[in-house]
Design a protein that fits this description.
The structure holds 2 protein chains of 2 kinds.
Chain A: E1 4-15, E2 18-30, E3 35-39, H1 46-53, E4 61-66, E5 69-70, H2 76-86, E6 87-90, H3 102-107, H4 117-130, H5 146-158, E7 164-168, H6 176-191, E8 195-200, E9 211-216, E10 219-225
Parallel strand pairs in A: 3-8, 3-9, 6-7, 7-8
Antiparallel strand pairs in A: 1-2, 1-4, 4-5, 9-10
Helix pairs in contact in A: 4-5
Chain B: H1 3-13, H2 15-53, E1 57-61, E2 84-85, H3 87-92, E3 101-114, E4 117-124, H4 126-132, E5 138-140, E6 151-154, H5 156-162, E7 169-172, E8 175-183, H6 189-192, E9 194-198, H7 199-205, E10 211-212, E11 214-219, H8 226-236, E12 240-244, H9 248-288, H10 290-298, H11 303-341, H12 351-368, H13 370-377, H14 381-385
Parallel strand pairs in B: 4-9, 6-8
Antiparallel strand pairs in B: 1-11, 1-12, 2-10, 3-4, 3-11, 5-8, 6-9, 7-8
The chains are: A alpha/beta, B alpha+beta.
Chain lengths: 231, 388
């Protein structure tokens, strides 16, 4: 049994233009320690699938099991606790809090834990060093480059030591070289045992992943096994 | 890091908006504090005026056939006035609210012909009478502060008509008395026309031992239940008529009460406006931070954590607004209270008012922020982050 199992997941949005069937019965299994990419054209449903798998967006039909927990059987507050413990997010535009320093942004998931301020700072400093920003901990996001902001976002996603990280187009707004550095960082983290699921539309990014799930029109078109490049 | 740091960080980032919100609260709290402290000062000033005025109760015999006037009673011939006994004072001290009776000043009325002119004699216990009539301005014989049994005080009109001055001797009921002082015009014809003499001496001279014609009394304070006291006295003293003072000072009391109601109404409006200012500002703040709140929810913040952040911000702002508002309100009231009240008032800094003002500001801020906080918890993190 995989770490993540989604079974016959449907997502239907009801709006002014009637019903939109964003996901049409997707089933997928992700193994622990896997680096999986989800690829597809715009509007294919890959980001919707990511939000469903990230315990943020209840499916209209179907279920998702993570670590033997039926995630959508939990109420919204317990699901928040679940996300806190199991999931880290790297958002498309990084979504750093502009008035908090890099260190404080990384400490955000720890702020609702029982850890002391000192413990939180030590943990945040450790992950900032891991992503190569140990010397920029006190800078505000607008004092960092795009790549550095992305690293802060990655540090925030892993500081709580979750088993899974979801990344939505993490290299979308970066130049090729910086994008490659970020993917190298992801691969390093993956080698340490972190399960990573990444949405991308860039085929070059597939060089770093173990499998890629192609999504088209809300359905899983195919799954392709890749041979990841060595960082 | 704690959620408070996030709230503080957001406040620092939106200095101008949050500054304007605090300014709104400061103006509101300052206005309320100013109005209340001026009203309070007016009430205290009035209380002092009433205390200064002296008597606020008069006890007279329940007798309809009288026509010479003193202290609200009128007698045709002073000799016809029905007397009390001195024991009335002991009876007065047995009422339920006896502790509020500050001064009891019994009086005996008599008349005599002095220099061929009819004069009203009022027997008083000088220490009590002088405590009661603090506002009397007396031209004393040099060094004198209170008359003895062989001395009298003469009202201004009586002194003029009888041509008496401090140090003169006057014959009353066949006995010589020295004028210890003359009382400057008081505005009361009764006091101005009378000669005040020691009560026991007058009782002896008129051969009416223990007799008392009327009693003036002062209940101690402005807020004491004066009408209850008069009612209790009336019950204990059958055959008397006990009345509470009805003077111009009570008209001022009405004015102060009206000002108090006005202050309350204005404060209510200011509180509603203040709450709306907080509500609108916090709603705007939550809307601007939609994505941010989406991030919080995505990384595992519970709804209660988001509420805590919003309410912490509201509490900090309200606390600052309350403290500054109180300080400004009190300062303005101290500086301009007399101008606003159109009377000489002394505004006193009150710690309890500070507590109410700051506490009230925080309660209003937090209550008004409850809706924005609730709205923040309803944000769908997926929508907030525009995942879809």
């Amino acid at each position: 049994m995989g770490l993540i199992e989604i079974r016959d997941v449907h997502k239907i949005y009801t709006g002014g233009e009637g019903e939109v069937h964003a996901l049409k019965g997707i089933s997928l299994e992700v193994q622990e320690g896997e680096f999986l990419a989800m690829m597809g054209p715009s509007g294919s449903g890959k980001s919707t699938l990511l939000s469903v798998m990230g315990a943020l967006n209840p499916p209209s039909k179907g279920s998702m099991i993570i670590d033997e927990i039926d995630v959508y059987a939990l109420d919204s507050e317990r699901r928040a606790d679940f996300r806190h413990e199991y999931i880290g997010f790297v958002f498309q535009q990084f979504q750093l809090i502009p008035y908090l320093t890099a260190m404080e942004n990384v400490m955000l998931p720890l702020a609702i834990s029982k850890r002391t301020d000192k413990e939180q700072r030590e943990m945040a400093q450790l992950v900032l060093e891991k992503v190569g920003l140990g010397n920029k901990a006190l800078r505000l996001p607008n004092q960092l480059s795009g790549g550095e902001q992305n690293r802060v976002a990655i540090a925030r996603a892993i500081v709580n030591q979750p088993p899974i990280v979801f990344a939505d187009e993490p290299t979308g707004s970066l130049d090729t070289k910086t994008g490659q550095e970020i993917l190298e960082l992801f691969q390093t983290l993956n080698n340490e045992g972190l399960t990573i699921i990444m949405v991308t539309h860039n085929t070059e990014n597939l060089d770093w992943v173990q499998r890629v799930a192609f999504i088209r029109d809300g359905s899983l078109e195919k799954i392709q096994v890749c041979k990841p490049r060595l960082a | 890091m704690r959620l408070t740091n996030i709230a503080m960080g957001n406040l620092k980032r939106r200095k101008l908006k949050m500054g304007l919100l605090v300014l709104g609260l400061v103006i509101g709290v300052a206005s309320i504090v100013g109005l209340f402290s001026i009203t309070k000062a007016m009430q205290e000033d009035l209380a002092n005026k009433i205390d200064e005025y002296g008597a606020n109760m008069l006890i007279v015999p329940d007798n309809d056939n009288v026509s010479i006037s003193f202290g609200g009673i009128t007698v045709e011939g002073v000799g016809q006035v029905k007397d009390f006994d001195m024991s009335i004072i002991d009876k007065m001290r047995t009422i339920k609210n006896k502790e509020t009776l500050n001064i009891i000043s019994p009086k005996l009325l008599a008349d005599d012909s002095i220099n061929n002119k009819q004069a009203l004699l009022v027997g008083v216990q000088f220490p009590e009478e002088l405590r009661l009539k603090k506002w009397w301005q007396i031209n004393w014989i040099a060094g004198k502060k209170a008359p003895t049994a062989g001395e009298v005080l003469v009202g201004s009109e009586a002194a003029r008509v009888l041509e008496l001055a401090p140090g003169n001797t006057v014959k009353i009921k066949g006995q010589d008395f020295q004028v210890a002082g003359t009382i400057q015009p008081t505005g009361s014809s009764e006091n101005d026309s009378a000669i005040f003499i020691d009560l026991a001496t007058l009782q002896k001279l008129t051969n009416r031992p223990q007799a008392v014609s009327l009693v003036e009394a002062a209940a101690f304070c402005y807020t004491c239940p004066i009408f209850e006291v008069t009612s209790q006295l009336q019950e204990k003293l059958p055959g008397t008529k006990v009345s509470a003072l009805k003077e111009s000072v009570q008209n001022r009391d009405d004015m102060v009460k009206k000002f108090g109601v006005f202050a309350l109404a204005v404060s209510g409006i200011i509180m509603i406006i203040g709450a709306l200012v907080v509500l609108i500002s916090m709603l705007s703040s939550v809307k601007e931070r939609t994505r941010e709140i989406g991030v919080f929810r995505a990384i595992g913040y519970r709804k209660s954590h988001v509420i805590q952040i919003v309410l912490t911000e509201a509490t900090i702002l309200s606390l600052i607004g309350g403290i500054i508002g109180y300080l400004i309100g009190m300062s303005v009231a101290s500086a301009f209270g007399s101008v606003v009240a159109q009377m000489d008032v002394k505004v006193v800094w009150q710690p309890l008012l500070a507590l109410y003002a700051i506490g009230g500001a925080v309660v209003i801020g937090v209550v008004a922020s409850a809706i924005p906080a609730w709205q923040a918890t309803r944000l769908d993190p997926v929508e907030a982050l525009r995942f879809i």
